[in-house]
Amino acid sequence: MSAIPDNDPSVVFDVRPIPGRIKHTQIFLRWQNLPVNEFFVLLNDHDPIPLKYQFDAEYDGKFTWEYLEQGPEEFRVKITKIVSTDPADDPNRDPKVVFDVRPIPGRVKHQQIFERWLNLPVNEFFVLLNDHDPIPLKYQFDGEFAGKFSWEYLERGPEEYRVKITKLAPVEAPEQKESAPTPVTQAEAGVQEIDATGLEPPEPLVRILAALEALPAHTKLRARTDREPCHLFPEAEQRGFSSDCTEQNDGTWVTILSRV
């Protein structure tokens, strides 16, 4: 401890008085503002190992973590920045590269993502930033552009998902196919029904979301699928719908979608 100025407030960051809800945010902010090869000493009243897990997820290979004191009343950790975190030095966080789709309405989100990807030069990429796993989008890429793109998760939640999507080959915008729509029927007063059984992914998801967009006010949608439509739930929630899904005796699943 003698080599570390552990009482110097310019070096020691005492986080004990900071409310828990903002503690990690302030720690990350201080670390991000460090010059490369500089450090601070984190002082806490318990082992901050959950913070290390966050550092590992966000900044793997860009920091060192050295315990100077491990309790029982005080924990001190020397946290050093060993690589720059300036967005200009990290193309995966450059605002020119990151496509933040969180503010885009759900009904046009996938369309805008495909437009951006189609306009990429071959071997170029963008980083998709979303608030839930965009795996339904990957199914659509697989269906339209198999072998012509790569999909690499850079961050997998819980609050942010980042996916590096690269164009691997020249492509042309697909022709708009006039496929027969899945019938939406009036099951009962205030409830419409769509049967998406017998369809291959991502068609059930695509057709149910289309039915949601056209759903009249004060009406619920009852959707039947061959399997639990787990990827439908976050997409529906983003559009302002709750989901109540149950398995039926015949092995199909029925999901009731209601406006929140």
CATH fold label of the largest domain:
Translation Initiation Factor IF3
Order of strands across the biggest sheet? 9-10-11-13-12
Order of helices and strands: EHEHEEEHEHEEEEHEHEE
Tell me the number of strands: 13
Rg over CA atoms, rounded to whole Å, is: 24 Å
What's the name of the CATH homologous superfamily of the largest domain? Answer: TusA-like domain
Number of helices: 6
CATH secondary-structure class of the largest domain: Alpha Beta
What is the straight-line distance between the termini? 56 Å
Number of domains: 3
* Structural class designation: alpha+beta
The percent range for strand residues is 25-35%
Which outline best applies? elongated
- CATH architecture level-2 label of the largest domain: 2-Layer Sandwich
Instruction: Give the rounded overall mean pLDDT.
Output: 86
Percent helix, as a range, is: 25-40%
Low-pLDDT sequence parts: none
**Strand count, sense and closure of the main sheet?**
5 strands, mixed
How would you portray this structure in words?
- Strand 10 (191-195), helix 5 (203-213) and strand 11 (220-225) form a beta-alpha-beta unit.
- The chain is of the alpha+beta class and 260 residues long.
- The protein is built from six helices and 13 strands.
- The protein has a five-stranded mixed β-sheet. It has a four-stranded mixed β-sheet with strand order 1-2-4-3. Strands 5-6-8-7 form a four-stranded mixed β-sheet.
- The mean pLDDT is 86.
- It folds into three domains: 12-81, TusA-like domain (Translation Initiation Factor IF3); 87-167, TusA-like domain (Translation Initiation Factor IF3), CATH 3.30.110; 184-259, 2-Layer Sandwich (Translation Initiation Factor IF3).
- The chain has helices at 20-32, 49-59, 106-118, 135-145, 203-213, 232-238; strands spanning 12-14, 39-44, 63-70, 75-81, 98-100, 125-130, 149-156, 161-167, 184-188, 191-195, 220-225, 241-247, 253-259.
- The chain starts with 11 loop residues before the first strand and ends with a strand.
